Amino acid sequence: MSRIKQIEITPIAFRDPPLLNVYGVHEAWALRTIIEIKTEDGNYGLGESYGDEQTISQLRQVAPHLLGMDVFNVNAIRNKIESVVTLPDPNSGLDIAPGTLGATTVPRIFSAFEVACLDLMGKITDRPVCDLLGGKVRNEVAYSAYLFYKFERHGFTNDPWVDTWGEAITPEQIVAQAKKMIDQYGFQSIKLKAGVFEPEKEIEALEALREAFPDVPLRIDPNGGWTVETTKRLLDKFGNGLLQYLEDPAHGQEAMGQVSAMTDIPLATNMYVIGFFDIPKAIELDSVQVILSDHHYWGGLRATQELAQLCKTWDIGLSMHSNSHLGISLMAMTHAAAAIDNLTYACDTHYPWQEEEVIVGGKIPFKNGAVVVPDKPGLGVELDRDALAVLAKNYENCGIRARDDVSEMRKYQPDWKGTVPRF
Ligand code: GKR
Ligand code: MG
């Protein structure tokens, strides 16, 4: 038995570029939490999760109840979390942040600890996490170039930092962004975050990407920003195999089901199937052909494998969604994806948008757009405690306590609503 002796929950903040989406614009700092579990036998395991106040307080509420528990018995840890965690008040207004819905509370909080326990199990047994998930079926996990419309710099911050990506508003600038990202990381699929401008303008960008990268699969994701009518109008333009899949075009499972009935283009979602509880309706409505899983709110790496099995049963494709994150999350995603044979699309990652790191050695390298699955014990990463202290200080000083793209955009455009669907 390997008992939990201590748990450290450290909120952090790192710089984030002014990336645009249907809700608004990213603030100058992105928040995460680093979870460190220490055992009585002197080992430590790492997890990374959301950094909003709700998640931090739930992690902190649960942590003391896990002391003394065996890191190998994650079923008991999950039951304990389920019995002690306070579910959010549905009227609190806190449920709007991605991944913080009441129904995802237990999976979201459990996931943060499960990943740290798996890291520990790997270190104790001297095996990589993917071995604990049944063994790797691939040596490298492919990620996609995740393109964003963006401002050149944040307009409302005292921080002199400016990212190196420049403005991306026009199709030409989007193509330049893709070139830079592909040159740097070797990605072999492209995803364009949409819902920012008139859809026709965004499709011009897609067409420009198709011309610049004729063999690279393309995806577009307006985050539910288009009505069913708008999507219907656009479907013809997506003909000729322009898209590998169309991600969350319309808002809600019913709307997605209506779009799905009109097209053979596979629809993907990370917004409307966010837990096992959403799957029956998705199957009933045939609203989605690709589920974009996210271990941070689906309930961890083993739950991602369970989802993969369900997807196989129902002939649904599987890939991975991402939010702004650092290397512990990237490694957790990589080990899970390495152990799932039907995870056949390149996964999403925001990783190129972040310059800072919390792990020893800094940024994780990509080779031809993929992360090599490490053979080291556990997740294969170590905590850089000096970097953690710097990022924790950022959190203290940055003043942001929950992501709020809508309010940030109102600074630029006071009448901004951030409502979905927009077009
Ligand atoms: O970072 O702006 C963003 C994304 O829009 C993110 O919040 C989404 O959760 O990447 C995500 C997505 O695929 O919808
Ligand atoms: Mg999405």
TrEMBL record:
GO MF annotations, alphabetized: glucarate dehydratase activity; metal ion binding
What pathway does the annotation place this protein in?
Carbohydrate acid metabolism; D-glucarate degradation; 2,5-dioxopentanoate from D-glucarate: step 1/2
InterPro entries to which the protein is assigned, alphabetical: DgoD-like, Enolase-like_C_sf, Enolase-like_N, Enolase_C-like, GlucD-like, Mandelate_racemase_C, Mandelate_racemase_N_dom
**Binding of substrate, residues:** H26, T100, Y146, K191, D221, P222, N223, N270, H321, S322, N323, H350, R403
Which reaction does this enzyme catalyse, per its entry?
Answer: D-glucarate = 5-dehydro-4-deoxy-D-glucarate + H2O
Q: Where is the active site?
A: K193 (proton acceptor), H321 (proton acceptor)
Q: Does the keyword Magnesium apply?
A: yes
Query: Pfam families in the record, alphabetically?
Result: MR_MLE_C, MR_MLE_N
Query: Which UniProt key words apply to this protein?
Result: Lyase, Magnesium, Metal-binding
* Family, per entry: Belongs to the mandelate racemase/muconate lactonizing enzyme family. GlucD subfamily.
**Protein name per its UniProtKB record:** glucarate dehydratase
Instruction: Supply the source organism for this entry.
Output: Marinomonas arctica
